[in-house]
Amino acid sequence: MSLSNGFFDIPQGKVAAVVTYLQMFQRPPARPGPSEESWSLQKADFSGLEDYRLFFRRVGQDWLWFSRIQLGDDELSQILDNPRYETYVLTVSGENRGLLELDFRSEGEAEISFFGLTSDMLGRGMGRWLMNRALEIAWSHPIRRLWLHTCTFDHPGAVAFYVRSGFRPYRRQVEVTDDPRTIGLLPETAAPHVPLII
Ligand SMILES: CC(C)(COP(=O)(O)OP(=O)(O)OC[C@H]1O[C@@H](n2cnc3c(N)ncnc32)[C@H](O)[C@@H]1OP(=O)(O)O)[C@@H](O)C(=O)NCCC(=O)NCCS
Asked: What is this structure's pTM?
């Protein structure tokens, strides 16, 4: 496919992000980092879909994560209840502080479909701790490939963090979508690093 060079207007009410896909084909060595006794990771046990959505928003709202928020109950349950879809929460002294979702629905591979911490936990080494756990869990399954994607709405250090984790970028896309803040999925105050244009 060819695409001419240049600047392209994004229509009013839409947003555009550059998406980077990264992958690895073998388990890398764990990277050193801090670890606290109070940090633990367990399979999520949300009391219902609203509880899940609330925590998903807490982690992802400021990075404009909306894909799960736009799903109805049936569609969302179909994903979360699939035995080949694993949702984990990182807790600190029993409080949810990080979200990890691993998708094993495609034979022989896994996707880290969501990976993030609540904003108060950033920059303390907890992301590294969570990635070490994620790699341990993913590679304990019979997979040949582990992949994920991240976009320019995500934390500015995310791509470099994933590269240090052993992932290699292999594909780039531009995603254009309705601005989730203008269609009522997220509050207008979400993600100030992606200013709302109205
Ligand atoms: C991506 C994300 C999980 C990374 O977590 P983070 O808190 O920013 O990064 P960390 O502090 O854990 O790690 C950064 C590095 O600093 C190191 N570090 C941080 N604090 C440290 C400390 N107190 N002592 C020693 N090392 C420390 C880590 O070990 C790590 O080193 P490495 O990458 O060289 O191995 C986090 O930024 C996040 O949740 N962002 C919001 C959601 C998001 O954008 N997710 C990605 C989209 S898919």
From this structure: 0.97
